[in-house]
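Protein modeling request. Please complete all fields; requests missing the sequence field cannot be processed.
Requester role: graduate student
Desired output: 3D structure, token encoding
Chains: 1
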Amino acid sequence: MSVAPANPLEMLAYVVSRHIKDKQIVYVGTGLPMVGAILAKKTHAPNITLVYESGGQDPIEGPMPWSVADPVTWRKSPITMEMALSFAQAANGYVDVAFQGAAQVDMYGNLNTHIIGNDFLNPKARLTGSGGGNDLISLTENTVIVGLQTPEKFPAKLDFITSPGHLYGGNSRKEAGLLGNGPVAVITQIGVYDFEPVTKRMRIKSLHPGITVEIAQACTGFELLVPEGEIPVTETPPPDVLEVLRNEVDPQKIFIAFPPR
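Delivered output (261 residues):
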């Protein structure tokens, strides 16, 4: 029996999973990062440790959590901790990779989860704020940004910097005293991006099937760096992995239903 191709959200979850290596400690956030992390554990990275933001440490296998505060994330965990101690894991170098989303992302991987609009006291929209976002991007060894890419979500200038990526480019992150490598990748429905080593500007790494540089640029409010030569096409999930994703990881389609519920 043939397997239907991956929808955009399933593609995102799969690419997230491929950014996880076996035996890593992975800080998991709500949504597709959670889906991708569980998929990685069920496929190519069975020995990872899942650390949930609410404090659950590597719970035993169960249903897909609705969020990082779902009791499933604590189910028979060897240890559960307060959020402050959970973030302290990152500060002490015990988190290899964390996944984050945001309302806005700029060319240096800085994130905005505070406001939309230029007037802080009278914004167009008031968002959730930092939560643990600033802690994670400031302290973990590596951060991967995950989200949907549009010119409004990827603007030339953020309305507010909540979580510092590579700040103003170059060595500005290190000079500010922040730990870790900062953002190392950005995953969207358009493609996968990294950051040019010297300038720290966002650069195309691969584009999903059918996507061109022109489409990627049209979905971005700043100029993307384009590498020389042919741009790779992002690997798509094989049928056996799609079966695991659909039937074992998120069978209720909480996060991978498309269009989203």
